[in-house]
UniProtKB/TrEMBL annotation:
<dbReference type="InterPro" id="IPR036263">
    <property type="entry name" value="Chorismate_II_sf"/>
</dbReference>
<dbReference type="InterPro" id="IPR036979">
    <property type="entry name" value="CM_dom_sf"/>
</dbReference>
<feature type="compositionally biased region" description="Low complexity">
    <location>
        <begin position="1"/>
        <end position="19"/>
    </location>
</feature>
<feature type="region of interest" description="Disordered">
    <location>
        <begin position="1"/>
        <end position="22"/>
    </location>
</feature>
<dbReference type="GO" id="GO:0046417">
    <property type="term" value="P:chorismate metabolic process"/>
</dbReference>
<dbReference type="InterPro" id="IPR002701">
    <property type="entry name" value="CM_II_prokaryot"/>
</dbReference>
<dbReference type="GO" id="GO:0004106">
    <property type="term" value="F:chorismate mutase activity"/>
</dbReference>
<protein>
    <submittedName>
        <fullName>Chorismate mutase</fullName>
        <ecNumber>5.4.99.5</ecNumber>
    </submittedName>
</protein>
<dbReference type="InterPro" id="IPR010958">
    <property type="entry name" value="Chorismate_mutase_highGC-bac"/>
</dbReference>
<feature type="domain" description="Chorismate mutase">
    <location>
        <begin position="19"/>
        <end position="100"/>
    </location>
</feature>
<keyword id="KW-0413">Isomerase</keyword>
Length: 100
């Protein structure tokens, strides 16, 4: 009986109705968790690189933000990912601007 409970418990967590689907979903979720960790690491790296650029720009007498460069980035993300890409790019730009 405990194997029936074990088989239905993961199904409730995954929404799947068969053990095969539970396995596929569980494996795919593990891959997504790994990808999310890598994405977060890349975003943190992007933020650090952006901080270097901002520091150098300000030290040389420039402005903290380069709006024409930000427009290039927005266009790139929109071109690659569609309208949702613009929202993602805006979030990345906001994170990378640092604290005011």
């Amino acid at each position: 009986m405990s194997s029936d409970t074990t088989a239905t418990a993961p199904a409730a967590d995954t929404g799947a109705r068969t053990p095969e689907a539970v396995g596929v979903i569980t494996d795919a979720r593990g891959r997504i968790d790994d990808l999310d960790g890598r994405i977060i690491g890349l975003v943190q790296e992007r933020m650090a690189v952006s901080a270097v650029i901002q520091r150098e720009r300000i030290a040389s007498g420039g402005r903290r933000v380069n709006l024409s460069r930000e427009m290039e980035i927005l266009d790139h993300y929109r071109g690659q990912l569609g309208r949702s890409g613009t929202a993602l790019a805006m979030t990345l730009l906001e994170l990378s601007r640092g604290r005011v």
